[in-house]
Write a structure and sequence with these properties.
The complex is a heterodimer of chains A (about 130) and B (about 170). Chain A has about 130 residues and is mainly α. Chain A has helices at about 1-10, 20-35, 40-50, 60-65, 100-115, 120-130; strands at about 75, 80-85. Chain A has a two-stranded antiparallel sheet with strand order 1-2. In chain B, helix 3 (about 60-65) packs antiparallel against helix 4 (about 80-95). Chain B contains 7 helices and no strands. Classes of the chains: A mainly alpha (about 130), B mainly alpha (about 170).
């Protein structure tokens, strides 16, 4: 019965129930578990977004695919397929589904940095992308 | 056998059936592949590249691919298990060698050696044959850039549509 109720809850909760700000807040909470008093920084996030990384594969920064401007349409570095804008100010679908956010951090951090991102990096990155108006 | 209502209606039915059959035949020549329904397929398989029509490869190719998603052409494309299984099902249900495959898909299936499970659509014999008139410099154009970028020229590739008359090669 509880499973049925849970399923019903999942089915009736619209995908847009999570806002980008809520996602940022929960990333900050997560970051505080390993670094107490942590606050997300837009400028650290921007640095991280643009930084040339080593240890990854073909893409060596977030900007490789998402371009220097998170509001612009990107392009996959290998397949050349268009990638929709990353900033919620340009694309309302972004940062509205925590599972999607986690999935892309997992994949893209491995691709660009050759490792998982720290909770602090994820919070800073998100703070920057959300700040782009 | 005189002309009466019964004979006439049999004739009309026969002509209608033949017409429907011929119509079906034309649809087969249209280079259109059935696509999985619902948002999951395009969401998970159409972010980094075109959501390829499953009918472009046989089921054995998709099975191999879906077992190696953590190293998917050098990238991590891993999925959680329920999504992975759901997508594998969509792929095999619409694969080139599925029992309900259309003529085009049967051609794809027949062109791939039995023992092979190709992973790159662009390396299949049929793809090469269909694209042999496209010179190398066209593939290098900024808006194309890669043979994996079907949607650059096949304007409705995301719907499984690849007819030649819908091709628009970007400048």
């Amino acid at each position: 019965m509880m499973r049925l109720l849970a399923l019903l809850f999942v089915m009736t909760t619209p995908a847009w129930a999570t806002t980008p700000q809520q996602i940022l807040d929960s990333l900050v909470q997560e970051a505080r578990q390993t670094q107490s008093g942590f606050t997300a920084s837009v400028s650290r996030g921007e640095q991280f977004y643009r930084a040339k990384q080593t240890g990854g594969k073909e893409a060596d920064s977030c900007a490789s695919c998402h371009t220097d401007n998170p509001k612009a349409e990107g392009r996959h570095i290998k397949t050349h397929k268009a990638i929709e804008a990353l900033a919620p100010s340009a694309n309302k679908q972004r940062f509205t589904d925590p599972a999607q956010v986690e999935k892309w951090f997992r994949r893209n951090c491995r691709e660009v940095l050759g490792r998982v991102c720290t909770p602090q990096e994820k919070a800073d990155f998100t703070a920057y992308v959300l700040s782009v108006k | 056998m005189g002309v009466n209502i019964k004979n006439l209606s049999i004739l009309i039915a026969a002509v209608a059936l033949a017409g429907a059959w011929v119509g079906q035949g034309q649809a087969d020549n249209e280079v259109v592949f059935p696509m999985p329904t619902g948002p999951l397929y395009v969401k998970e398989c159409g972010s980094c590249h075109t959501a390829y029509a499953p009918g472009l490869l046989p089921a054995r190719s998709w099975q191999k691919m879906m077992n190696e998603l953590d190293n998917h052409f050098g990238e991590d494309a891993s999925l959680d298990e329920p999504d992975r299984l759901a997508i594998l099902r969509m792929l095999t249900d619409h694969a080139a060698d599925n029992p309900n495959a259309n003529m085009l898909m049967r051609r794809v299936a027949a062109s791939i050696p039995r023992g092979a499970a190709p992973q790159r659509i662009t390396e299949t014999q049929l793809f090469r044959f269909q694209h042999d008139e496209v010179p190398a410099h066209i593939w290098k154009r900024a808006k194309i850039g890669s043979k994996a970028n079907c949607g650059a020229c096949h304007t409705r590739a995301n719907e499984g549509r690849y007819p030649e008359r819908e091709v628009r090669i970007p400048r």
